[in-house]
Amino acid sequence: HITKNLRKTAYISKRKIQSCKLFYSEDPVKILRARGQYLFDENGKRYLDCISNVHHVGHCHPSITKAAAAQMDLLNTNTRFLHDNVVLYADRLASTLPEKLCVFYFVNSGSEANDLALRLAQQYTQHRDVIVLDHAYHGHLMSLIDISPYKFRKLAGQKKWVHVAPLPDTYRGMYREDHPNPGQAYADKVKDLIDEVHGKGRKISAFFAESLPSVGGQIILPEGYSAKVAEYVRAAGGVFVADEVQTGFGRVGSHFWAFQLQGEGFCPDIVTMGKPMGNGHPLSCVATTAEIAGAFTANGVEYFNTFGGNPVSCAIGLAVLDVIEEEDLRGNATRVGAHLKDLLTKLQARHEIIGDVRGAGLFVGIELVSDREKRTPATKTAAWVVKRLKMDHQICVSTDGPWESVLKFKPPMCFSLEDAELVVQCIDRILTDTVTSPMITSQSSVNISAESSCIPLISAKSDYRMLIDPHTVIPKI
Ligand SMILES: Cc1ncc(COP(=O)(O)O)c(C=O)c1O
């Protein structure tokens, strides 16, 4: 009865006000329990979870629940009392980062971490303006909506102190895979922007970017980009903030942090963390240098956060780090991610609609295009694939990118080789049906009603589309 009412409410809310959106809004899923990479609904039906990067070491991992329960049973206070957990945890995190990132602020969400990063940058530099990447999302607080083009374009618009640099997307952006040095070329765009900002008499406090832009479409930053941008931004008196909320804690396999993919020589001034950090428990953090932290403290205003750094959160954080090591989850991400990418690349040879396959570790994207030459985003087919994967195969995948044309994978890190093979087989089947079924050969006739509410309604007049690729033909949404 409750489930029936829930579905009715979901249906009503879909038709009326929808500030809270569900996956599969016309046929929502009610999950009652989960383990590892699997979700189970009220009828015991099992779903393979390809998108919950929050449940990093696996849903309801027994080591995490045990550590949480044990500390809950003993004590939970705040950082006004001494406690070993917060020190031990900061120490463990420090061992994963370059030495200069040695001060840690524990907070409760990715948004809180980014908001604090913004304060730190502005206080340290005594400048106001921020450069962000196009289509970025950095959180739901007002300060972060202001620096998230993905949101502010649909709301109050761009503030004078916010400046948008092109997304360094070598598949769809202004410099592509055939460019001799896209990292330098995209970084030079940031330099141009800095000069423009200075021309207006304004000053840069920070460059904010995800180490692998996710909402932007699972983008892998070109080689050399971050170091060059950091050089330009620092020369302008600003700092480099790496948002690792989605990508940290070994997701990319080869490294603990995704910013490390940019080479040993590159180190951000501030790193923000969140989602996977507490395996579902609200736990996040800002790591920075002693100089930046010193400037923040120098104004005499204390930083207090009621829940941030409490003994339970830190016990959970420590347990997450233990599991990553004990179960070699970075090794697993490397092996399974490489296998998944390899299988998808083979699939690309057989399906014209797969325009690009990209990723690092278990952060993988498949970009669907209705025309490979023009790279026309196949938005409707992407929504169709998501729907069929859920309905026919109980596999949860979602889309991202400016046109919601990128199928994204960021599963719990225990995702297996067999899981990867199953998903690719199912996508193969669906894409084969897409070609043979007269119902879905035409982009305009695809029935995507279940997912349509998830597709952002970008105005056809939006300048933003032109920024991404002036040659792209926009499909009807
Ligand atoms: C890159 C990035 N930064 C920050 C946030 C905000 O995190 P939270 O939802 O925990 O506030 C998100 C959330 O999706 C995110 O993807």
Automatic annotation (TrEMBL):
Pfam families: Aminotran_3
PANTHER family linked to this entry: 5-PHOSPHOHYDROXY-L-LYSINE PHOSPHO-LYASE (PTHR45688:SF6), PTHR45688
GO molecular function: lyase activity; pyridoxal phosphate binding; transaminase activity
Family recorded in the similarity comment: Belongs to the class-III pyridoxal-phosphate-dependent aminotransferase family.
InterPro entries given in the database record: Aminotrans_3 (IPR005814), Aminotrans_3_PPA_site (IPR049704), PyrdxlP-dep_Trfase (IPR015424), PyrdxlP-dep_Trfase_major (IPR015421), PyrdxlP-dep_Trfase_small (IPR015422)
Named cofactor requirement(s): pyridoxal 5'-phosphate
Domain of life, source organism: Eukaryota
Protein name: 5-phosphohydroxy-L-lysine phospho-lyase-like
Species of provenance: Salarias fasciatus (Jewelled blenny)
A GO-annotated cellular component: mitochondrion
Keyword annotations from UniProtKB, A to Z: Lyase, Pyridoxal phosphate
CDD domains for the chain: OAT_like
